[in-house]
């Protein structure tokens, strides 16, 4: 499926494709069509927790200089910061992964040349996400054992306190048991040196991890495995908690550029945005049809009223002679007033009734 998201894992020199159910070794990322999340140990990269005498904005420059002076890489160093914490005006705690500039260019070119979006997630960014997933306010240790390596991250959900990698001579069972003894000694040492209240150790396993040795003693460390998920690899059903953590990753954990992250998010949201735009377009078209219908109704109503107005004007009386009408009307008013005037007989009777016998009346 073209727009599906694939998960590719580069670990210990092998590249895998994880589809949620099966884990399959692949030769090249170009074999995958669609957007890709590439989880990589960035072979030969190193991860550290340091306190740097610099403001957060200048930490990367100081770290590159330190890596160059220490001779960690053949060419110039590149820094991928995972976490920064300002501790003073000119002091910053930083948790980062350093790799050669040549290696980083390889991944940048990979992102640019692939036909779809590719986001790169450093291994220690995944372990930091695991620490956040545990969500403890108290200090805990996360240990990821794979091949002959054991990667350690100590901290809380909001702070990194210690980062290191322990390495065994080979992958024999005896050497891996010694590897776990080294991990235990490392945790006890850092607890003592930094006076940490470290009690819980969460183990993350891979498909080639060995069973956790019995560490029941008086060291005060409580060991437990992170919840696992089943996966089919080479026809066998195995369990891995590392694969379960990948479901908790977000684009913010990626070491890719902001442009690449934005492109990935846009591509993932494109079907939703298209559906939303289609819905809006249909709503606007429906609104247009509705108001067009209402407009037609109002037009018809206006035409009807205009016709009625024309008919009413045609029924008005014809013009007449105002002066002739006024004289006729005045005559009628006079006749009406005359009807109210008493007759001469009534006047004489009234006068006669009002004359006494002693009065003489001459007419």
List its salient traits:
alpha/beta; single chain; 5-stranded mixed beta sheet; 363 residues; elongated; 7-stranded mixed beta sheet
Describe the structure.
This protein has 363 residues and is α/β, with parallel strands linked by helices. 41% of the residues lie in helices and 27% in strands. The chain contains 8 helices and 15 strands. It has helices at 59-70, 101-113, 123-134, 173-193, 241-246, 258-314, 322-339, 344-353, and strands at residues 5-11, 14-18, 22-25, 35-40, 46-52, 77-88, 91-100, 118-122, 140-146, 149-155, 160-167, 200-205, 222-225, 229-233, 236-240. A 7-stranded mixed beta sheet has the order 8-4-1-2-3-14-15. A 5-stranded mixed beta sheet has the order 11-10-9-12-13, sandwiched between helices. The longest helix is centred in the C-terminal third of the chain and has 57 residues, at 258-314. It is elongated. The chain starts with a strand and ends in a 10-residue tail after the last helix.
Radius of gyration: 48 Å
Q: Please count the beta strands (DSSP E, at least 2 residues each).
A: 15
Strand percent estimate:
25-35%
In order across it, which strands form the biggest sheet?
A: 8-4-1-2-3-14-15
Helix/strand order: EEEEEHEEHEHEEEHEEEEHHHH
Any low-confidence stretches, pLDDT <50, length ≥5?
none
Number of helices: 8
Mean pLDDT, as a whole number?
85
- Please give the share of residues in helix: 40-55%
Report how far the terminal alpha carbons are from each other: 134 Å
Subunit organisation of the chains: single chain
SSE class? alpha/beta
- Overall geometric form: elongated
Largest sheet: 7 strands, mixed
């Amino acid at each position: 499926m073209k727009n599906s998201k694939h998960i590719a894992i580069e670990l210990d020199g092998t590249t895998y494709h994880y589809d949620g159910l099966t884990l399959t070794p692949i030769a090249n990322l170009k074999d995958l069509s669609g957007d890709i999340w590439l989880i990589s140990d960035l072979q030969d990269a190193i991860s550290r927790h340091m306190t740097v005498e610099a403001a957060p904005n200048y930490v990367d420059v100081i770290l590159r200089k330190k890596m160059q002076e220490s001779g960690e890489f053949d060419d110039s160093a590149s820094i991928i910061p995972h976490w920064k914490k300002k501790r003073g005006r000119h002091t910053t705690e930083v948790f980062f992964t350093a790799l050669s500039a040549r290696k980083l260019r390889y991944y940048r070119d990979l992102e640019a040349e692939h036909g779809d979006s590719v986001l790169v997630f450093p291994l220690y960014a995944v372990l930091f996400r695991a620490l956040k997933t545990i969500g403890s306010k108290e200090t805990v240790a996360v240990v990821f054992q794979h091949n002959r390596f054991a990667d350690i991250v100590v901290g809380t959900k909001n702070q990194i306190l210690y980062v290191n990698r322990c390495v065994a001579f080979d992958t024999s069972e005896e050497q891996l048991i010694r590897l776990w003894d080294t991990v235990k000694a490392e945790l006890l040492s850092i607890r003592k040196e930094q006076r940490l209240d470290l009690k819980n150790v969460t183990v993350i396993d891979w498909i080639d991890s060995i069973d956790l040795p019995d560490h029941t003693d008086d060291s005060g460390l409580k060991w437990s495995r992170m919840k696992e998920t089943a996966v089919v690899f080479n026809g066998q059903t195995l369990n891995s908690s590392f694969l379960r953590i990948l479901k908790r990753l977000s684009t913010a954990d990626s070491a890719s550029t902001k442009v690449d992250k934005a492109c990935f998010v846009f591509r993932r949201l494109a079907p939703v945005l298209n559906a939303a735009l289609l819905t809006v377009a249909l709503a606007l078209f429906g609104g247009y049809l509705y108001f067009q219908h209402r407009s037609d109704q109002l037009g018809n109503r206006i035409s009807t009223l205009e016709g009625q107005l024309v008919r009413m004007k045609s029924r008005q009386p014809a013009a007449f002679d105002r002066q002739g009408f006024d004289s006729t009307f005045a005559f009628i008013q006079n006749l009406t007033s005359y009807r109210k005037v008493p007759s001469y007989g009534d006047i004489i009777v009234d006068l006669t009734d009002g004359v006494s016998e002693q009065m003489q009346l001459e007419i």
